[in-house]
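Can't paste images in this forum, so I'm doing it all in text. The chain is below; anyone willing to post the predicted structure tokens underneath?
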Amino acid sequence: MAGTAPGGADRVFPDGFWWGTATAGHQIEGGNVHSNWWQWEKLGLVDDGSVSGRACDYWNRYEQDHDLLVELGQQGFRLGLEWARLEPQQGSFDDDALDHYVAILVDLQRKGIRVCLTLNHWVLPNWFAEAGGWLHPRAIDWWRRFVRHVVPALAPYVDLWVTLNEPMVPVLAGYLAGYHPPTESNPRHARRVFCTLLEAHAVAYDLVHRMVPRAPDGGPTMVGYANAYQAIEPYHEDGPLRPLEAVASKVVSWISFDAWDHAVRTGLVPFPMGLGRVGPRIRRLAGSADFVGVNYYMRISVRLNPSSLSNVKSGEYDTPPGIETTEMGWQVYPPGFRAVLERVTDRLGLPIYVTENGCCDSGDDLRRAYLVSHLAAMHDAIRGGADVRGYMHWTFMDNFEWREGFAKRFGLVEMDHTDPALTRRPRPSASMMRSIIEGNALTSEIIERHAPGALDRFVP
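Text version of the structure:
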């Protein structure tokens, strides 16, 4: 159990707590040429004008990157599969690519780094996307074939399975806000994709459990999903608009993440996502999670008529006075992290792994203060009863941040994509995290040395 030293200065995390970093294949591997994102980037829609290209070249440099993970004291690594690499043409699997993923996982295991593997982190094979993606009537058949093909080869090396990363982002950013591929604004399609992704999650959960009887350490196979959660609150603290904003906040929360959690818990497709669907229930969906992956970055303050329902564009929401923001325009709000962890615990009652949490900050001062304050909030949630078993920082190194391109920097390790050598340079925050991991504790000495005043910095 988490403990606190006298005076509350030192925060000790539970025995066996898993510390790591999180990544996604398309953002770090490079050369994902058969994917829908690779094609979409050529349209010139990435904000900084870049394309993923070689990204971080992790596909070829994974051994040195794993050595750096060890040097930085990291115990776990979340990475994702790229379906487009593994099935570049419909029905034609690339066994060399699968063998390469096996080699990556073997190297991690050999170096003592536990693996959290994401089966899909938004990106699709181009053939799948061109056929209609998750809207195609056979989308689930194709997804099932993919999962069946790859899981047996990778199972001996995977400690945690994530079926889908932030499934509401493709729904909202791709089919409602028009910000990600396929850049639609079609509520009917958004509802259909929501239902299909629920079914995809249920299929993957069932298949992994059928094909993987035990985890590599002999424990139970653990399969879950990673959802994007925000602390969504009214903009005004009082006054006549607050009651209306409170209602709007509940609507935004419902659409952004609560409806998904409700569906996985009950097996029922909720309103309004189930409109036009024949039958409210999805087969084998109810209870299809052994843990919940919590991705938390920010608070969203809702005024009437918010400009976007996509967390990717949440910088468009107004920020109340006195609240600091990151270079993404996202509110830094540590109390929201604790509130989210407690809310997920109350609603789902499952173990939690923080599968993403971090700060876009090219200078690293804000990142260190952000991390200290959010780790303290996470510790408070654990002491309050939340079964949080691990924390994975987003991200290991600066990478291709989707629509925002290479301009946005979340890494513990600095990397400039224009550098021919793609040199990795650990930031001071990486050293701070190493000290926290080594002691499994956030101590007053670490705070004073790396981020003095951090625990008071973000109190409005």
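The first strand starts at residue 3 and ends at 4. The chain is about 40% helix and 15% strand.
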